[in-house]
Amino acid sequence: KAGVTQTPRYLIKTRGQQVTLSCSPISGHRSVSWYQQTPGQGLQFLFEYFSETQRNKGNFPGRFSGRQFSNSRSEMNVSTLELGDSALYLCASRHWGPSYNEQFFGPGTRLTVL
Amino acid sequence: GENVEQHPSTLSVQEGDSAVIKCTYSDSASNYFPWYKQELGKGPQLIIDIRSNVGEKKDQRIAVTLNKTAKHFSLHITETQPEDSAVYFCAAANFGNEKLTFGTGTRLTIIP
Question: In chain A, what percentage of residues exceed pLDDT 90?
């Protein structure tokens, strides 16, 4: 079974630009979450999508947005990039059910903002 | 919201010895506690998890213990090997508010 895939793996942008990252979950997983990982702040939750609806959201500004498609693939968008947005962006997928199910992470997209 | 503290931030252990990493959480409603291992250039990989109705869980050389009263949980790795060298993260989640809140990570180095 293929794991969580993320594209692109590396990205370089300049301040003020916008970026879109893509995530394909494990087959059968309908929940997709996004996390930002930085040396200073660690792993921080951005948002979770299930059935094309945002189910939960972290404490990030509105410049960070996401969506999920009917095939469970997800994208996240960051507009008006700032230097502080440089980070590893991780996507994770899981089954959605009556109890918390384990999340499987992808390899991440390394975003550098210059 | 939930806050997870993790100690130590770095840990060096002789090969073959045991390693222990400890975490505390603040939200008594949290009921799911996974541990992740992250190697360089990779995403976090789940190594073991425990739910609040269980006090201890073991999987070969890895074990996790949970003390709900004290709100802390620990990862124990026995007979450490060089491939155990990585960054380890604890996390907590509450079904109903289903985001994972992570600890700050422990860089474990196994000394051959």
Answer: 85
